[in-house]
Structures are given as C-alpha cells and as structure tokens.
Specification:
By secondary structure, the protein is mostly helical. It has one domain (about 1-85). Helix content is about 85%, strand content about 0%.
C-alpha cells in the first residue's frame, strides 16, 4: 500500500523539498560560521574564504554545477509533470 499508493503521491513533494533544502543549506553561512571548528571546513565556508581572500576557480565551478543541477532537475521534472497532467 505504501509503495504503490502513498510514495508515488508524495514523491514530487519529497523531491522538491530535498532540492530546496539542499539549496537553502548554501545560504546558512552565518550559522556555519558559528558552529564550525578549525578542523571542519564546510562548502559554504570554503566558498566564503575563496571570495574574501583569494581568487580560485573552485567558486566558479561550484556555481556552474549548482546552475546545471537546477537545469537538470527542470529537464527531469518535465516528463513527470507532463504525465501527471495527462492523467488528470
């Protein structure tokens, strides 16, 4: 019942929530600054350091990957949305 009815019904919402939580995690720089230690370097902290202290192409690569992730997610969502609209 769960696998055949509930999961297909909530799968688009779970995918969207996961995606937005991932993107929102990059915006939590202030919280990361307070909670991190000297040994722990998270991606937002590394990007912040690259912006402020040195010019490194890693920032451009991460930004490009984020944009490609969004565009890829949109292309993957198109067939799912088209089939769900045909069913109604």
């Amino acid at each position: 019942m769960l696998r055949l009815v509930t999961l297909p019904a909530i799968a688009p919402g779970l995918a969207a929530a996961t995606f937005f939580a991932f993107l929102h995690s990059f915006d939590e720089l202030v919280l990361t600054l307070f909670l991190s230690s000297a040994q722990l370097k998270t991606l937002p902290l590394m990007l912040w350091g690259d912006i402020n202290y040195r010019l490194n192409p890693v920032l451009a690569v991460v930004s490009t990957l984020e944009v490609l992730l969004v565009v890829g997610g949109l292309f993957l969502a198109r067939p799912v949305l088209a089939t769900s609209q045909k069913a109604t």
